């Protein structure tokens, strides 16, 4: 290498001054030493700012001032070796392998040259790397922070060219695949995308490549562990000078948790709207089955069920009866149309406990599902029964749903079903109240009609008797017969008015009892005497069977006689002519149990719970005269309860007769001291 005009005469210094200043301020520099090892040229003096003056100074002194001893000796040795041997030297610097040595701040190149005076010298071209190292350090820290941000965001950064080659960072974090284990190309990436999302994704990619710019899209990909996750991808198309797509760079973030949370919020809003709409429809509904089928549809759709059943509790029959169903075969309906409340099924267990009963797998729950085969025949493996419980805790039925596969219903869905069940229970209760009000209104109308009839019935015989007396004033026999008729009819009117007054007094809590110790035999005797005329008219037989020893109790003799008179006359009215009515009594623990039995028309099972309701008429279509106003049995119940007792009705159905049982607290000797069912001289026939 020849310097040529490197050392120019002083006349050109003005021009060189500008250039020299630029060189001195730049990171690039040149050092030239002559054969005497003196410094003859130096640019970029900022690296040697602690050496003044520089030119003409021995390079050894300069090196020992500028660098630490060890490194200064190495530099001096390199310069001498190059000067003596002519062997060039280059020390390249790798910023990523910095040793912390002062020399690491420069990139050096030594070469022997010929100076203008003909002597040999050494030229050293060096590049001060400190600014670059600083910028690289800043960039490394920035990249590190960027990578940390990507890690925290669970993100993947990628670059894809038009040939399909893909470069990624964070691939394993998002997908579970290591870059070295998979072919990083578009074909492989498309194989991860969900089949339902792939066509739309490819269409958007093609449109994006054509239009350019940035875009964001969401889709599902399959991780290495076979799990499907939702990702959000943002991409930017880079184009060449001709405007053709060159590459796509972008980032992809796992948004599964966010997606699930968003879907949950949307589902919650949808469920709320469904519940709100259902509540409004139930409020206006008047028919039981269509409304409960609507409720079933909403409940099944919300939980993903394929089977649904609503069973209503029949209090009288003590059975669960299917009133609405979905996805149920006819054979199943025929078998489980009516289920006894005391049967051992998962629905009756829910009814009894008032809590939800879950069957995760019906095939492994033989004890919980006795009718396993029949239930499994529905095609469902999992079930959840929820009691229809009103706000006051009263259970009126059961809502059941089923699933095709084994399934544990999530707690959130369980709570949702409890809300549906509560709506169903309130709807059923409302319909029952409305039906009860309608029946009460109808019973009241029938009562008024019957009252008018019962009040008018005695008036015709009274009017006839008065007319007979008027027409035959001197006929004593006729007068006596007429007076007897009048007395009988007035007695009937008196009992009718007394019953009405008694009901009113009891309702207003103004009925006073004249309590005393008494014998049951005396009470039943008075009741039998009072009912005997009616028994005789119907040619019936009344049998009273009492134990030999007295049965003592504390009560109002007149009111208790009224109780048994009502029960006996009720049995007479609803029994055939010539039939037998039986009254029995026995000691049952600390109670006296009196039963009135007949072989009459019986009571339909659905009417048993309501026979003691006011104005209740069981035989609504009967043409029998004198069937009463429907207040007798209600009066019986209220009078018995005033004596701290109970009364119940029993019948095996229409045409099977009836049995009314009165239980009253006994006084005197404890249970077991008398001989029950052994009359002193056989049953009394009256």
Please explain how this structure is put together.
By secondary structure, the protein is an alpha+beta fold. The protein contains 18 helices and 24 strands. Strands 17, 18, 19, 20, 21, 22, 23 and 24 form an 8-stranded mixed sheet that branches. A 6-stranded antiparallel sheet has the order 13-12-11-16-15-14. Helix 8 (256-284) packs antiparallel against helix 9. It is rod-shaped and about 185 Å long.
Question: Summarize this, please?
Answer:
The chain is an alpha+beta fold. It contains 18 helices and 24 strands.
Q: What structural class results from the helix and strand content?
A: alpha+beta
Share of β-strand residues: 15-25%
Unreliable stretches covering 5 or more consecutive residues: 1-24, 94-103, 620-626, 671-686
Helical content, roughly? 40-55%
DSSP strand count: 24
End-to-end gap: 154 Å
The overall average pLDDT, rounded, is: 81
**Mind describing the biggest β-sheet?**
8 strands, mixed
């Amino acid at each position: 290498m020849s310097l040529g005009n490197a050392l120019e005469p002083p006349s050109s210094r003005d021009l060189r001054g500008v250039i020299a200043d630029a060189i001195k301020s730049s990171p690039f520099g040149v050092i030239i030493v002559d054969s005497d090892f003196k410094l003859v040229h130096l640019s970029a003096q900022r690296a040697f700012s602690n050496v003044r003056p520089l030119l003409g100074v021995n390079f050894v002194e300069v090196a020992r001032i500028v660098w630490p001893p060890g490194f200064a000796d190495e530099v001096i040795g390199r310069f001498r070796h190059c000067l003596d041997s002519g062997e060039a030297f280059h020390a390249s610097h790798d910023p990523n392998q910095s040793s912390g040595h002062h020399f690491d701040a420069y990139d050096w190149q030594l070469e022997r040259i010929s100076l203008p005076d003909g002597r040999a010298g050494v030229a050293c071209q060096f590049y001060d790397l400190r600014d670059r190292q600083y910028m690289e350090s800043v960039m490394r820290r920035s990249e590190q922070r960027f990578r940390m941000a990507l890690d925290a965001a669970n993100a993947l950064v990628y670059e894809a060219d038009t040939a399909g080659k893909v470069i990624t960072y964070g691939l394993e974090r998002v997908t579970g695949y290591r870059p070295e284990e998979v072919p990083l190309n578009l074909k492989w990436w498309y194989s991860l995308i969900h089949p339902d999302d792939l066509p739309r994704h490819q269409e958007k990619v093609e449109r994006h490549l054509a239009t350019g710019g940035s875009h964001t899209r969401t889709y599902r990909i399959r991780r290495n562990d076979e799990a499907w996750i939702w990702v959000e991808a943002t991409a930017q198309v880079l184009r060449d000078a001709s405007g053709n797509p060159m590459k796509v760079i972008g980032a992809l973030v796992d948004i599964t948790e966010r997606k699930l949370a968003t879907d949950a919020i949307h589902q919650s809003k949808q469920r709320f709207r469904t519940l709100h709409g259902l509540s409004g429809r139930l409020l206006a509904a008047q028919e039981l089955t269509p409304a409960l089928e609507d409720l079933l549809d909403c409940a099944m759709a919300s939980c993903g069920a394929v089977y649904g059943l609503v069973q209503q509790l029949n209090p009288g029959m003590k059975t669960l009866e299917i009133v609405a169903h979905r996805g149920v075969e006819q054979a199943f309906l025929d078998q489980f149309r009516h289920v006894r409340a005391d049967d051992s099924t998962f629905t009756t267990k829910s009814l009894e406990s008032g809590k939800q009963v879950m069957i995760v797998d019906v095939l492994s729950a033989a004890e919980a599902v006795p009718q396993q085969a029949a239930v499994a025949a529905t095609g469902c493996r999992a079930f959840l029964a929820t009691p229809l419980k009103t706000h006051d805790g009263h259970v009126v039925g059961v809502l059941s749903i089923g699933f095709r596969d084994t399934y544990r219903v999530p707690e959130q869905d369980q709570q949702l079903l409890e809300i549906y069940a509560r709506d169903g229970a309130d709807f059923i209760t409302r319909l029952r109240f409305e039906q009860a009000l309608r029946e009460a209104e109808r019973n009241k109308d029938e009562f008024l009609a019957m009252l008018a009839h019962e009040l008018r019935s005695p008036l015709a015989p009274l009017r006839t008797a008065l007319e007979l007396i008027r027409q035959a004033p001197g006929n004593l026999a006729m007068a006596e017969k007429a007076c007897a008729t009048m007395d009988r009819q007035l007695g009937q009117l008196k009992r009718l008015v007394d019953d009405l007054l008694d009901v009113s007094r009891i309702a207003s809590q103004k009925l006073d009892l004249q309590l005393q110790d008494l014998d049951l035999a005396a009470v039943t005797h008075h009741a039998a005497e009072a009912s005997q005329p009616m028994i005789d008219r119907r040619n019936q037989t009344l049998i009273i069977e009492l134990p030999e020893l007295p049965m003592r109790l504390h009560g109002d003799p007149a009111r208790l006689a009224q109780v048994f008179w009502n029960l006996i006359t009720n049995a007479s009215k609803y029994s055939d002519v010539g039939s037998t009515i039986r009254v029995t009594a026995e000691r049952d623990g600390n109670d006296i149990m009196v039963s009135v039995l007949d072989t009459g028309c019986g009571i339909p099972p659905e009417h048993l719970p309501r026979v003691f309701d006011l104005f209740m008429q069981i035989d609504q279509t009967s043409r029998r005269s004198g069937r009463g106003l429907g207040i007798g049995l209600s009066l019986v119940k209220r009078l018995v309860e005033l004596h701290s007792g109970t009364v119940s009705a029993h019948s095996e159905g229409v045409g099977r007769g009836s049995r009314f049982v009165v239980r009253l607290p006994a006084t005197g000797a404890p249970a077991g001291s008398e001989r029950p069912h052994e009359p002193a001289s056989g049953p009394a026939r009256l």
